[in-house]
Amino acid sequence: MQARYLVLKNGSTYEGVGFGSKKVVHGELVFSTGMTGYQESMTDASYDGQMLVFTYPLIGNYGVNRDDMESLHPSVTAIIVNEIARLVGNWRSNMTLTQYAELEDLPGISQVDTRALTQELRDEGSMEAVIVDDLKPETIQAAFDQPLASTSAQSASTNSVYQAPNTGLRVALIDFGLKDSILRSLAQRNLNVTVFPSTASAEEILASHPDGILLSNGPGDPKDLDYVLPTIRILEEQLPVLGICLGHQLFALANGANTYKMKFGHRGFNHAIQENGKPATYFTSQNHGYAVDADSIEATELEITQTEINDGTVEGVRLKNRPAFSVQYHPDASPGPHDAEYVFDDFVAAMQDNQKAGI
């Protein structure tokens, strides 16, 4: 077993045992509090370019299968675990997590004190880190001199238009780093989906005669995608809009609100949210490092619909005068609780009402 080292930008060093790819990596280090769902997390494009710490102590015990991927290949640049399972106990498994990491050239490091590491990231915030084979100063410096792994929604987006056909209402989905589980949730509602690149114009999208617009999740800073804001403003004047995760942040920016980078973000499947003004609460799946600034909402036509119970983060907004709304969490879950699946039903209802009104 090869010793490898995780070195943080602040100089902290964690020794562990390498598995998977032996390449040196440089990325933003973040953590997930999910007890399960390591496979979906690794392939979620919202983690594009990030090194992912799993806080649950045993990872890999149910292996890897073909059906639970959120994209074809891993989006993370490395995974850090306390213990990687030696045995797999799941009839659906096609391979072990170690075998998957080797197949996908994904660096991993185990036997790391992930409890201490997570506490450090909570105290100091997400930060750059590298995985290296030795602690020579020149080795560490050379690793940090490598370009920081990309966290671009434009690179995570599809490059071409494609369809997920069905028999129901037509949805134009703008892809900023789409999770496949969103497509599955739409298919369960018989929605006829056309997926567009993040650079598609409003004219191109409207030419597909959609009944509604969905803004997908994705990685990175929403302010790097200012080119899409005019498109959102045009589309929301004509059709119902639903934004998810990064799509929520872009929807807020397009309507005059502001966003900010969080200290360590929300990444996990146990985030409790509350409907504003109502007793209803839900547990949600989340993965984001940026959030909508609540104080910036007041001067806009938006209103806050949901907040995170623990830290008050804005979890949902809607336009006061249009059937357009967004949520910060993943109503598709995958993994995580399915409390918020109703969001897709609300979107369908908005499209149906819009059709009836002849708008």
TrEMBL record:
It catalyses: L-glutamine + H2O = L-glutamate + NH4(+); hydrogencarbonate + L-glutamine + 2 ATP + H2O = carbamoyl phosphate + L-glutamate + 2 ADP + phosphate + 2 H(+). It is an enzyme of class 6 (ligase). Keywords: Amino-acid biosynthesis, Arginine biosynthesis, ATP-binding, Glutamine amidotransferase, Ligase, Nucleotide-binding, Pyrimidine biosynthesis. CDD domains: GATase1_CPSase. SMART domains: CPSase_sm_chain. L-glutamine binds at S46, G218, G220, L246, Q249, N287, G289, Y290. Its EC number is 6.3.5.5. Residues 2-132 form the Carbamoyl-phosphate synthase small subunit N-terminal domain. Gene3D superfamilies: 3.40.50.880, Carbamoyl-phosphate synthase small subunit, N-terminal domain. The active site is at C245, H330, D332. Residues 1-169 are annotated as: CPSase. InterPro entries: Anth_synth/Amidotransfase, CarbamoylP_synth_ssu, CarbamoylP_synth_ssu_N, CarbP_synth_ssu_N_sf, Class_I_gatase-like, CPSase_GATase1, GATASE. Pathway: Amino-acid biosynthesis; L-arginine biosynthesis; carbamoyl phosphate from bicarbonate: step 1/1; Pyrimidine metabolism; UMP biosynthesis via de novo pathway; (S)-dihydroorotate from bicarbonate: step 1/3. The keyword Lipid biosynthesis does not apply. Pfam families: CPSase_sm_chain (PF00988), GATase (PF00117). PANTHER family: CARBAMOYL-PHOSPHATE SYNTHASE SMALL CHAIN, MULTIFUNCTIONAL TRYPTOPHAN BIOSYNTHESIS PROTEIN-RELATED. Belongs to the CarA family. Small subunit of the glutamine-dependent carbamoyl phosphate synthetase (CPSase). CPSase catalyzes the formation of carbamoyl phosphate from the ammonia moiety of glutamine, carbonate, and phosphate donated by ATP, constituting the first step of 2 biosynthetic pathways, one leading to arginine and/or urea and the other to pyrimidine nucleotides. The small subunit (glutamine amidotransferase) binds and cleaves glutamine to supply the large subunit with the substrate ammonia. NCBIfam families: CPSaseIIsmall (TIGR01368), PRK12838.1 (NF009475). Composed of two chains; the small (or glutamine) chain promotes the hydrolysis of glutamine to ammonia, which is used by the large (or ammonia) chain to synthesize carbamoyl phosphate. Tetramer of heterodimers (alpha,beta)4. This is Carbamoyl phosphate synthase small chain. It comes from Apilactobacillus apinorum. The lineage of its organism: Bacteria, Bacillati, Bacillota, Bacilli, Lactobacillales.
